[in-house]
Amino acid sequence: MAISPLSRRTVLRGVLAGASVSVGLPLLELMLDRHGEALADGEPLPVRFISWFFGNGVTLARFVPAGEGPDYPLSEELAPFANVKEYLSVLTGFNNHCAPENKITHHEGMVIFSGFNNRDVGQGQGFFSNAGGPTIDQVIANLPSVSEKTPIKSVQLGISKRPSQVDFGTTMHALSHAGYLMPLPPEHSPLVAYKMLFDSFTPPEDPMKPHRIAALDIVRENAKKLSQRLGAQDKLRLEAHLAGVGELEKKILALPPPCTKPAAPTQDNVDVNGNEPLAQVSDVMNDLIAYAFRCDITRVASMLFAEGAGNTIFSDLGFTGAHHDYTHDGSPQTQSTQVSGGVVYTMQRLAHLLERLKAEPDGVSGNLLDNTVLFASSDCAEGISHSVNQQPMLVAGRGGGKLVPGMHYASKTGENPSDVLVTLLGVFDPAATSVGKDQPGSNTAFAPLKA
Question: How would you classify residue 115: left for phi > 0, otherwise alpha for psi between -120 and 50, otherwise beta?
């Protein structure tokens, strides 16, 4: 008897006493065409996008690889990417083309994520500017081919809660912007982000909790019925997927200190002995992104790991000063130890996200990183100079086969970073020809990345 295909939008539902629980499914073979390269209805496998920001730049002498091309050696600060090097392209030597009159330290570097000059520069207290236009993640999220496919158009997440106290306006405190004066602040709480994405967290004194637990039992019964339609490999995928839901909940609830408030739980990502649990929160946020992508809850995410000019302290390394302050210390010892050490630590967190995506199956023989585009950069090349010349960029993932991954490209002419954004936008909108406006904008694609 022929087995009918299963829709990608299928979810398992349980309802009891007014409590409803819905659990999305991973991508099963039954949802794919006979080659496993597209959905059963002929639609291509989904491609996802992540923008990822880290503040205060790098130390170029320790970051830029010594060689170019696909066989480039990982530098000291890029060493954490050893397990995903084949997916990582390092782009160096690019000069941010922001307007010179807009340079007020750190702010201008954020133009690299949009191609729009900042506005209202200096028209408020402290170091002040407003982002001038939509960031690339929101341009992609608003494409009908992306926004109409998932329940949530995009998600904005953050890790460190130590912003600058002297920078104002919208530019520095949000990575994602829907447009001028339309910042999308990051969510720093994994518990809130989990509820927002999955709507499956139950507050400690929720009177509906017993019914929700019972409803989950119904979900499991429905899963058993569904498994009768599945082949051996799909059964294993389904079992692993359902187990992953419980494991993710346990991991979030284990964050120090545990949330004990009877109201809606928002007290995760709370300092422990005065220190931020950066690695733990980052790991959970990475899990949330991977799980949301796996279940097609959203296809666009942004991560603001640590703000530019912020006061993040890498206490896991035994440091007691803010990373931003270290970057402005001209001491060779500080630059080689605290500054470079902080960059390596940051790259470890980004590498963990890439490894997490690589480990998550997508389709029959691929993984989420095969079908993802990640763009990462900072607000300057090096914090000590504030320069946006030689501002480094990282591009990871194969973009559903539309990108050439795994190379180091060193620009000799100070090319426009927005050329790269045009290429990345083209993965999602082949008709797109430009990004941004005026000096930092571009209508030229960066050909070396195109497959």
Answer: left
